[in-house]
Structure formats: C-alpha cells, structure tokens
Automatic annotation (TrEMBL):
Task performed by this protein: An essential GTPase that binds both GDP and GTP, with rapid nucleotide exchange. Plays a role in 16S rRNA processing and 30S ribosomal subunit biogenesis and possibly also in cell cycle regulation and energy metabolism.
Transmembrane segments: none
Region feature (G4): 120-123
UniProt subcellular location: Cytoplasm; Cell membrane
Protein name per its UniProtKB record: GTPase Era
One of the Pfam families matching this protein, by short name: MMR_HSR1
Location of region: G3: 58-61
Primary gene name: era
Domain of life: Bacteria
Length: 297
C-alpha cells in the first residue's frame, strides 16, 4: 500500500537542514518562496518513489529563526507542526547541546507526531563520540528514533528516509509524482516550453511530451531553470534537437523570452532532451534522469 504524508525538518541555523534537503531530493533545487515566514506552510521539496511520497514542508518561524529565540516557534509555527506526520530535528554531532537546543526540545514536547533526531555531520565524529552524543540526546527527549547521518556525504540518509516512510500514513500521492516542488510558476513556465515545441515541430511530436523542471534557482532579479524534455522515442529526440541543435536553440530562445515577459525577471533556461520509453508509466523517472552533457544545448 502506498504511503504519503508531510514532514518538517527543523533545527537551529547552520546545522545542515538545506544540505539534508538537497541530499534527500538529490537535486540542487533552491526555492526562495515569497511567502516564507508567513503562516502558510510552503513546500520545500517532494520525494516520490515507488513506495511513498514525502512532502517536506517549511514550518514558518522554525526553519530559519534568524530573529532569535523570541520569535522562534511562535504559535503559528507550533500549530503548523501539529499537522505534520513526522518532524525531523537536525542537530550537529560536533557541537555541544546548548540552551537553544533545550528550548527547541521543550517546544517539541507539544508535537504529537513522531519526532526523529537526525544527528548530522557524523563524518566529523569518531564512532565513540557519536555513541556518546546519541546517549546524551536520548536522555533529553523521547525521540521516536535517532539516526546518525552525514547530510553532506549522504551517509545513512537512506535510513532516515526508510524511517520516515515507516511512520507515514497509507494514502495516494498528494502531488503529481513528477513534481519536486509546488512552485506555481513552474507549470506555467513548463507550458511555454511545451507550447514552443509543438509550434516548431508541428505534428511530429505528440502533445503529451513531458517537461520536467529539474532545477529552479531564483533571486530577486533572475531565475535559472534547467528543464528536461521527455520523449518516447529517439526519433523524437532528433527532431527536437534538430540539425546541429538548431531546433532546440529556437525552442529555448523563444520560450525563454516568453518566460522573461511573464515573470518580469531575467530567465536563464537550459534544456536537454531525454528518451524514456513509456515514461508515463514510470513513477520514478524523475530520479533516473541525470544531467547528460551530450544532450545539452
Ligand atoms: N562536515 C559536514 N558538514 C555539513 C554536513 N551537513 C551540512 N554541513 C555544512 O554545514 C553548513 C551549514 O549547512 P546548511 O545546510 O546551510 O545549514 P542550514 O541548517 O540549512 O542553515 P540555515 O539555512 O542557516 O538554516 C554548510 O557549510 C554545510 O556544508 C555534514 O553532514 N557534514
């Protein structure tokens, strides 16, 4: 039975939350949400595989308590945590437990879902030290589990995923399975690419060619997007790339211009084409697509 649910990653600044998220999603997806620090939970990323879909949510005021402990976990943040299926507290193994940590723990007492401790930066500690820390943390809070990880190297992160899956409720995927973020513009911008493909290739490419946004980096002035065009057959790939890449260049340039007009920011667009037979039936296809220099124009 498929499982799905919401997980929040919390912790002090600089403990490795972003690194962990990138490792979990195996992509350099960076989302800067204009709604951050509001009461709405924003989706930071979605991990989908054959067994489960885990939606990682940013709980406002928890993820980046840069205003100090005063505003840390205000009522909204606490409420938003109550709706989670699991919370992951990230703590670095190479720092001693301080006041800030104890404050977080006291707040986490109110959370009803399982709270896991990801003891991060395990690559910086000896086995003995790791064990000592594990025992120390165990005595401080009733964690549903403590998982030593290295967010940087990825060591044991799969164990964390397995653990999270074990507590998720049964249920269908909440978001489309090819989605890594709920960024609303992502779909509109992907449509610009699809539309240009159909325009230039006329009837040669079927309408259900897939556009997968593989990375999205945004700041106030510009957006950099890397997207994969997924087709069924090698012949379609040839058509889209065109002679010496002429076709894909045209598609990219026009789609990029439309995007720039639409978002009012400079858009950098990189496109590549992947052939994936029966991609519609594959739930895991997103993960399987790596960056391929040869396909890149
Ligand atoms: N050695 C080691 N360094 C790590 C590991 N995880 C994260 N780091 C480093 O720790 C620093 C902070 O990591 P971030 O992922 O930015 O931490 P964060 O918790 O997201 O920080 P904020 O964005 O300030 O909340 C970076 O320099 C990372 O490279 C790890 O497993 N091992």
């Amino acid at each position: 039975m498929y499982k799905s649910g919401f997980v929040s990653i919390v912790g002090r600044p600089n403990v490795g939350k972003s690194t962990l998220l990138n490792q979990l999603l195996k992509t350099k997806l960076v989302i800067t949400s204009p709604t951050a620090q509001t009461t709405r939970n924003t989706v930071q990323g979605i991990l989908t595989d054959d067994e489960a879909q885990i939606v990682f949510l940013d709980t406002p005021g928890v993820h980046k308590p840069q205003d100090g402990l005063g505003s840390f976990m205000n009522a909204n943040a606490l409420n938003s945590m109550l709706d989670m299926d699991a919370v992951v507290l990230v703590e670095p193994v190479d720092e001693s437990v301080g006041k800030g940590d104890k404050f977080i723990l006291s707040r986490l007492e109110k959370v009803e879902c399982p709270v896991f401790l990801a003891l991060n930066k395990s690559d910086l500690a000896s086995k003995e030290h790791l064990m000592e820390k594990l025992i120390e943390w165990q005595s401080l809070f009733d964690f549903a589990g403590i998982i030593p990880i290295s967010a940087k190297s990825g060591d044991n992160v799969d164990e964390l995923v397995k653990t999270l899956k074990s507590v998720l409720p049964e249920g269908e995927a909440i978001y489309p399975k090819d989605m890594i973020t709920d960024h609303p513009e992502q779909f509109i911008l992907a449509e610009f690419i699809r539309e240009r493909i159909l325009y230039f290739t006329r009837q040669e490419i079927p309408h259900d060619v897939a556009i997968v946004v593989e990375s999205w980096e945004e700041n106030e002035k510009e957006i950099s997007i890397m997207a994969a065009i997924i087709v069924d057959r090698p012949s379609q790939k040839g058509i889209i790339i065109g002679k010496q890449g002429a076709m894909i260049k045209k598609i990219r340039e026009q789609a990029r211009r439309q995007m720039t007009r639409f978002v009012g920011k400079t858009v950098h667009l990189e496109l590549f084409v992947k052939v994936e037979k029966n991609w519609r039936n594959k739930t895991k296809y997103l993960k399987e697509f790596g960056y391929d220099e040869d396909d890149y124009k």
